[in-house]
């Protein structure tokens, strides 16, 4: 639920020519200038030398000026035609079984709020969140800020980041915060789909839970005062720490009330299922929620994201259409009515597929179709003003977007694409995904999940996105769960060379993409700033910090220092 730059090799068969090995030829030594003579051997005195240079990491300086990106809340709130009401509900704690509140006549009172938790029937809701407010940062002792030993091999680019490049780290509310039913939050879809308990826990990217801001979700229902206070506090804390906030409005945690009566289950591969809920009620409610956030926080937030990875919960054509419309209405409210001067966008998940044989038209068609269905669906109408392709609209109106794509497409893409029978389990993607190249090698070093280290394809990917949709590209989440990291002792977890290689090689390729390919990559956010809860799973550790879940103590991993150092040593010269 966090990768945007995974490479997936598409194949509808195996052809025969060398696309992979030409780029990575093993014996070239581009940095060798001197001719290699024969060795000469000689004796010398020996003494130990300390070969490590000790360097200390330092924090980003506090911001000297505070830029405003929109009107202050008092002015912004005038954009609501009817005044927003604000209230406070309290907390839903483990073991609550009865509703004590007597305000049963109030549709948005304490009793109505508690009954949402009761009817969610969460059998395994057993602990409270650890934090419900923003804790003050604990200063890190200087001895813990010594940079780790460098990896022997290092990136080869010679570029500095552009002045306005956005570099930061990302997390999401449900995956790092915890505060499950505290301070007026109501249940979201995630409570039903994943029964475990979430852990308490330059740009900091976080997400705001809809059900914490508007427990009753719909337009006209009261705003949760404690939630507004909390996010004001968080945003101000981020600014005080010298960082800038990037805010995502919806990160899988749709209000559970949209699913009343649905049989919600979790699909083993894609996450969510059985939720054909997204009608206009959803769109209006989401737009209202977006306006509540923008009117309260837009003055201090430079970058907004409406939806995170909508492909994973759009389910069908109607879902895609609703996401596009909701995004567009919020975008226009922000720019046209609120006159916001920051940026507002949308985050897509996309497994970039490359044809196994780029000279085979059928392979290329498969790769294009794969990209069209994952990204084009949303990006064509949003960025190019294009209508959704009639072919897809017709077929997908009543079909799920997801299917089991592990079965080979006999007969090729075209035959599969024109076979809309429900028995055709490859439809709609009609591709077979593989993660080995034509010679049977993995496409890259593998992680603990579906992510591989594939810098070789990153420039091609960014080039494709930028030149197809012609807007700045933001690498909004990228990260790597090192294989078996969770089973290692702490010192071994912290020395995470594979993650360093992942980040440094990707950042180096991003620079080449900017300077050599003319691609406007506006920024990159590492996922995630701390080991998180990966939807029911603590084993896939994506963090650049480890966290002790008993003591909440954090420890920087090597990759954190390496990544920050990489960016710091490539700042534009003033
Ligand atoms: C292209 O790929 C298809 C599907 O794998 C295969 O049937 C066909 O023979 C290939 N064509 C060429 C020219 O290699
Ligand atoms: C280690 O340090 C010595 C003395 O400073 C230097 O001559 C040598 O090249 C260093 N070796 C490496 C591998 O950096
Ligand atoms: C609750 O936890 C138990 C033990 O881990 C598990 O067997 C059960 O399926 C869980 N119930 C739900 C509704 O997830
Ligand atoms: C839309 O969905 C909501 C539940 O989420 C339902 O109450 C409402 O009747 C639906 N509206 C239409 C027009 O289908
Ligand atoms: C809910 O859906 C699951 C999976 O589709 C199915 O196995 C189960 O029987 C359904 N339960 C009810 C009560 O319909
Ligand atoms: C469509 O695909 C299904 C499942 O593979 C197959 O049984 C059926 O014959 C196909 N229909 C056509 C018209 O090819
Ligand atoms: C967490 O910290 C406690 C207390 O220092 C320690 O006993 C425990 O081993 C730590 N857990 C892990 C997984 O490192």
Automatic annotation (TrEMBL):
Keyword Signal: yes
GO terms classed as biological process: carbohydrate metabolic process
Molecular function terms, GO-annotated: beta-glucosidase activity
Keywords attached to this entry: Signal
Signal sequence segment: 1-16
One Pfam family of this chain: Glyco_hydro_1
InterPro entries, A to Z: GH (IPR017853), Glyco_hydro_1 (IPR001360)
Family that this chain belongs to: Belongs to the glycosyl hydrolase 1 family.
Name of the protein: CAZyme family GH1
